[in-house]
Amino acid sequence: MDKWIKRWKVPSDSSDSIYTVAVDYDGNFGCSCPQWKFRRRTGGDCKHIIRIKNGSIPLKVTVTPSHSAFPEKKKSVVIENNPEVLQSVIDDIDAKLAAILSRN
Predict the structure, then answer these.
(1) Cα 64 from chain centre
(2) Label partner for 96 (CA 20 to 30 A): which of 10, 21, 37, 89?
C-alpha cells in the first residue's frame, strides 16, 4: 500500500523541473527535489513543501504571443496561485503586445 495519501506537482523556480510534494497518513511531508532529500536528515522542509503548507502553490505558465510576427517568442514564468498576480501578469503582457503592434 502506498504511504502517500495526497500529492501535488510543484514547478521549480530555477529550471523546467516539476517536483512532487506528498503527505502521508501521519502528516509527514516529502518532496522529490534534491534539497529535500538532503534536508530530510535534519528535519527541514524544502521550499516546495513550505509552499504547499502555506497554500501558495505556484503556477508555471508558458506565454506564447498570439501575433504571428513573433512565433519564436516563448517564455515560461512561475507565478503564485493568486488571481491578482495572475491578472497583473496578463495586463502587463497585453500592454506590451499592444505597444509592439501599434509600432507596426
Answers:
(1) 17
(2) 10
**46 to each of 3, 12, 31, 40, 50, how far by Cα in Å?**
20, 11, 8, 9, 6
Q: What is the pTM of this model?
A: 0.54
Q: 13-23, pLDDT tens digit by residue?
A: 788 888 999 99
Instruction: Cell numbers for 20, please give them.
Output: 512532487
Q: What is the 3-state secondary structure (H, E, C) of 5-68?
A: EEEEEEECCCCCCEEEEEEECCCCEEECCHHHHHHCCCCCCCHHHHHHHHCCCCEEEEECCCCC
Distance CA 5, CA 23 (A): 6
- The highest-confidence range among 35-49, 65-79, 81-95, by mean pLDDT, is 35-49
